[in-house]
């Protein structure tokens, strides 16, 4: 269906209206939403990395506290005595002195190390308990089953390494407060590696709260810390408690009754605790609403501009194009004197001027294009012909090497003289040669090869005087003969015959101009399997040169393994020139 330029302009400007609306109202907000989320994620990821580093540093400090007993010889000596029978051999004063060391010296050292430690507890292996607390809660719960507590068992399993204990109650102290987290370690004799006791330090969660407050959460963002079992250690708001299971599952988004949150998380390597920062989707939606407002205004402006452009452009553009179409139709009918009246100096006028120039030079351009095509075809022909000479010389010189190595100097001399005569033929600048000259060249080549193979190779050349003056591309047959010698006769263990013949096949149909020149190159050598798709440089060259010289010529090859190969060239006689 033919469409007018006015209709196309209408469709074009409709697209210029719809496309900006789609891009501005739909795609642009989506892009901004993605950009905002990426910026928030990137910002939160950087902040989270810094927070994780601070918490890891804090946990490292707590870790170092648990190795404090190793730095005091009197503390280690007292713990060794309490874990052996040597304790009963001490005098009451010595026992009192050792107990004072564990109840006073060690707690004072721990309190001096960290001011935010709420309490410490030391449990030697003899069942005694030494407790200190920053809030003066120094009395342990009577008959408290310390050895059955999860933190105690976890410290024993760590076997001397630090064990991080999640939030728990200080239920082993009378009147103790809740919400502490701890670090525990099994103290071992450095010499015998025998367990001496378990030490645990309780830290206030306020320290973590201060760290998280330092990252400056805003716009309703939340933060949480979960231990390695998914238990909540810290939450910045009451809504986080209901999200604990979703956070523990590793979800990137969590759903709360009032809002959805995008989650950025990081794991503390030392304790395997997870830190989670969540920012609400409502904050993104508020920014998105502002983007939509801006998009609507841009869409309305684009609509007005598009309508103005459509009215203006269609007014001065359609008529000149219609006149150009009428001029081109006259040229199409063969009126090379058609002329488009140019008015003004704008782009349409320049197009009209170019149209007039095109019409006036059309004949010249057609001739120039025709000559260019012929030149390109001749260049391709020369390039294909030039491939033959180095390939032919390479194979012939390889034959000379074989004669030289076998010590056949007389044959080598004859071969060199024959090669000199052949080179004079190949260096002739004529692109075509008569079939007689080509056959004589092939005959010399066969004689040259016969010097190498002696009785192993025989050849026959058969062509009638009728084909003597017919012109074909020079060196067209040599690659086929060379292939027959190298790939068919040379590998064969028995004597082989190479046959080259040329004749004219006349059509039996009266009045039909279908006479053909047929050239055949055949051998009874080893042959090859056509299914292997073997096609070397020589065969490819023959196909291309034959196609360039004779458009309707054909080339085919037939081969049977063990029986030989036959190559056939057929050229319509009407396309063949005479010398």
From TrEMBL:
Domain HAMP as annotated: residue spans: 315-367
Organism: Paenibacillus sacheonensis
Stored Pfam families: dCache_1, HAMP, HATPase_c, His_kinase
Gene Ontology terms for molecular function: phosphorelay sensor kinase activity
Compartment list: Cell membrane
Keywords linked to the UniProt accession: Cell membrane, Kinase, Membrane, Phosphoprotein, Transferase, Transmembrane, Transmembrane helix
Classification via InterPro entries: Bact_2-comp_sensor_kinase, dCache_1, HAMP_dom, HATPase_C_sf, HATPase_dom, Sig_transdc_His_kin_internal
Organism lineage: Bacteria, Bacillati, Bacillota, Bacilli, Bacillales
TM region(s), chain numbering: 12-32, 294-318
PROSITE patterns found in the cross-reference section: HAMP (PS50885)
SMART domains the record matches: HAMP, HATPase_c
Gene3D superfamilies, per the entry: 1.10.287.130, Histidine kinase-like ATPase, C-terminal domain, PAS domain
Signal peptide: none
Protein name per the record: HAMP domain-containing protein
Main location: membrane
Membrane topology according to the record: Multi-pass membrane protein
CDD domains linked: HAMP, PDC2_HK_sensor
GO cellular component term of the entry, any: plasma membrane
